[in-house]
């Protein structure tokens, strides 16, 4: 038996996506107890530790199928002579795409995500995982008959034919003949039909395009005449540019069989192959190698730039990244390119491009960046929230931040994701309990008062002289007053409805004037903020606006610099929903308190969850 190999080598673990569940290796012991087909390949040492022979392709296959069953409730069979997918890599790719979609704010309006996977393979692993874990729908293509049949069986066995449609293609085709094909088109329409949320969305969009035409589904219920809805959806399709949200592909990377042997021997470029190579030759070899395959993909993507929003592919050879970037820049200057480290038992790189000028894909952090700056994670407990949603969680966190008098800038907000940058100038999160006790002694009641954990509109506001007053606040209303002698608070309470408008709360250092107050918030785009400062009578509104904007820029520049120098903590907080769970991820960005400061801030939040005082 070969020496035991780790499930994920520690050398490569740093390239794992932060949300990848396999950052924590699965328990082989548990798996072997549950799955006899996996147990058959396990050996036990004297201490009872389970070992798996990764050099045995059957053992690797049993591991993958057992994990798919245990962790995703997917029953998958893979023919002996076909590629066995390694799950950490496959999940990394999907999670990276989830980041891209979040960036594109696609989780904003509709839950419905439609994708294309080029070359699904015999396991059909990406569509199965994508459908099961993320709820996405897929059109999958496959050029090999045996893999196509096996993939089809896997989809049927998991009853996912409503979410996955497979098409057998010729190997010289990538997108052409797939997107425009009648069967594919009618399946995608039916797929849209099945999505209640999407129906409502369609109805709204159609109404915008042709007001009288769409009287369907006002209550968001699926009770409709199918033919009528199909017609409506067709109209919607004509109105909306993008039919597919993204495409993905793990292309065959070698140009000939000999190359696979050379690569097997070389550990340099692709990383050490830790487990037995699996798969038929055509799965790994394509004429001209991956360069030619991806170049063709780039060429064809130009034909469908109005139908597909984000194109992605994996690359298996680092040296090819530059060539592919060149091909992309020649194809269209409006492409955004992103290079991303992926990780499995070998290395892969991801590339994404788009022709949508509103998307800046290179703003999405690479896994390497994310891994180097690992976030601190706080899982939001369902039991403490009456509504378990990202906006509710954010309301609660926002309330804490407000209490801590830190500066908050909303960068991105949607129903499923919110990202804010936080600047703190004082470690207000320290000694909260002591402060609470002191306040109690001084006769100031604990400030949790009548506050609902989800952040209702009524709140206790402490004033400068140590007394507290309760007051009702309307969602979106601003207050700009002296707080406790150190900071002034300017608050827009965020409601679910406000999320799309990026309203936010921020604390402003005391020494800032009311002009600064308006500058900061106009910089943040709050429609309410301008009113804070009175506009002089003798200027026209436009002149005043120009003046203010000019001043804005200069003052913001100086203020930014100053704040960077003075801040003790700068961090990025992301509230997100992944599957059924809501989490807060906190990334350290800078500040004199270092990562300890971020740890303390998170500890404050944990304390609030355990025993709310705010
Ligand atoms: C490296 S395998 C990837 C399989 C699967 N996506 C995975 O990651 O496990 C590449 C797959 O693409 C298929 N393929 C090759 N050229 C193709 C083409 N032009 N269209 C669709 N599939 C293709 C191969 O048969 C093979 O199944």
Automatic annotation (TrEMBL):
Pfam families: Methyltransf_10 (PF05971)
Span list, region Disordered: 436-481
InterPro entries: METTL16/PsiM (IPR017182), METTL16/RlmF (IPR010286), SAM-dependent_MTases_sf (IPR029063)
Stored SUPFAM superfamilies: S-adenosyl-L-methionine-dependent methyltransferases
MF terms (GO), sorted A to Z: U6 snRNA (adenine-(43)-N(6))-methyltransferase activity
Alphabetical GO biological process terms: rRNA base methylation
List of residues binding S-adenosyl-L-methionine: 90, 119, 142, 250
Keywords from the UniProt entry: Methyltransferase, S-adenosyl-L-methionine, Transferase
EC number from the UniProt entry: 2.1.1.346
GO CC aspect terms: nucleus
Bias kind Low complexity: ranges: 452-466
Family in the record: Belongs to the methyltransferase superfamily. METTL16/RlmF family.
Protein name: U6 snRNA m(6)A methyltransferase
Taxonomic classification: Eukaryota, Metazoa, Ecdysozoa, Arthropoda, Crustacea
């Amino acid at each position: 038996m070969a020496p035991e190999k780790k499930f994920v080598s520690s050398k490569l673990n740093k390239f794992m996506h932060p949300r990848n569940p396999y950052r924590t290796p699965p328990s082989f012991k548990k798996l072997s107890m549950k799955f006899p087909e996996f147990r058959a390949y396990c050996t036990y040492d004297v201490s009872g530790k389970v070992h798996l022979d990764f050099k045995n392709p059957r053992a690797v296959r049993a591991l993958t199928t057992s994990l798919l069953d245990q962790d995703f409730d997917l029953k998958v069979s893979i023919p002996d002579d076909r590629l066995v997918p390694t799950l950490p890599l496959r999940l990394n790719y999907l999670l990276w795409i989830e980041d891209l979609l979040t960036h594109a704010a696609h989780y904003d309006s509709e839950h419905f995500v439609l994708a294309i996977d080029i070359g699904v393979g015999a396991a059909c692993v990406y569509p199965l995982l994508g459908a099961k874990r993320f709820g996405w729908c897929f059109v999958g293509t496959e050029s090999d008959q045996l893999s196509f049949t096996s993939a089809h069986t896997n989809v049927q066995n998991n009853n996912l034919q409503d979410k996955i449609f497979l098409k057998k293609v010729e190997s010289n085709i990538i997108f052409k003949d797939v997107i425009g094909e009648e069967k594919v088109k009618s399946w995608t329409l039916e797929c849209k039909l099945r999505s209640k949320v999407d129906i409502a969305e369609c109805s709204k969009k159609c109404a915008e395009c042709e007001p009288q035409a769409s009287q369907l589904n006002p209550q968001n219920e699926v009770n409709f005449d199918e033919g009528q809805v199909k017609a409506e959806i067709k109209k919607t399709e004509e109105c909306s540019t993008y039919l597919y949200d993204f495409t993905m592909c793990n292309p065959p990377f070698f140009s000939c069989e000999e190359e696979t042997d050379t690569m097997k021997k070389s550990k340099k470029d692709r990383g050490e192959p830790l487990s037995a190579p699996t798969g038929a030759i055509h799965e790994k070899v394509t004429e001209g190698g991956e360069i030619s395959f991806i170049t063709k993909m780039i060429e064809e993507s130009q034909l469908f730039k109005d139908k597909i929003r984000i194109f992605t592919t994996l690359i298996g050879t680092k040296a090819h990244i530059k060539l592919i970037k060149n091909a992309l820049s020649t194809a269209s200057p409006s492409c955004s390119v992103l290079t991303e480290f992926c990780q499995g038992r070998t290395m892969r790189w991801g590339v994404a491009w788009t022709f949508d000028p509103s998307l800046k894909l290179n703003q999405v952090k690479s896994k390497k960046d994310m891994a180097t700056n690992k976030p601190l994670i706080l899982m939001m407990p369902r039991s403490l929230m009456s509504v378990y949603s990202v906006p509710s969680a954010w309301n609660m966190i926002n309330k804490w931040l407000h209490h801590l008098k830190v500066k908050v800038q909303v960068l991105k907000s949607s129903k499923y994701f919110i990202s804010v940058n936080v600047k703190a100038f004082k470690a207000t999160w320290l000694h909260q309990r002591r402060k609470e006790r002191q306040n109690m002694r001084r006769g100031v009641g604990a400030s949790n008062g009548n506050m609902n954990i989800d952040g209702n509109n009524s709140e206790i506001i402490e004033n400068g002289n140590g007394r507290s007053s309760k007051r009702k606040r309307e969602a979106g209303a601003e207050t700009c007053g002296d707080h406790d002698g150190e900071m002034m608070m300017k608050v827009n309470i965020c409601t679910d409805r406000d999320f799309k408008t990026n309203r936010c709360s921020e604390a402003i250092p005391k020494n800032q004037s009311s002009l600064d107050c308006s500058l900061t918030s106009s910089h943040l785009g709050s429609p309410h903020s301008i009113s804070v400062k009175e506009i002089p009578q003798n200027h026209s509104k436009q002149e005043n606006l120009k003046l203010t904007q000019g001043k804005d820029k200069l003052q913001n520049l100086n203020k930014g610099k100053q704040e960077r120098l003075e801040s003790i903590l700068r961090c990025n907080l992301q509230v997100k929903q992944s599957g059924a769970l809501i989490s807060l991820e906190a990334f350290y960005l800078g500040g004199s308190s270092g990562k300890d400061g971020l740890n303390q801030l998170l500890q404050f939040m944990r304390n609030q969850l355990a025993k709310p005082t705010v």
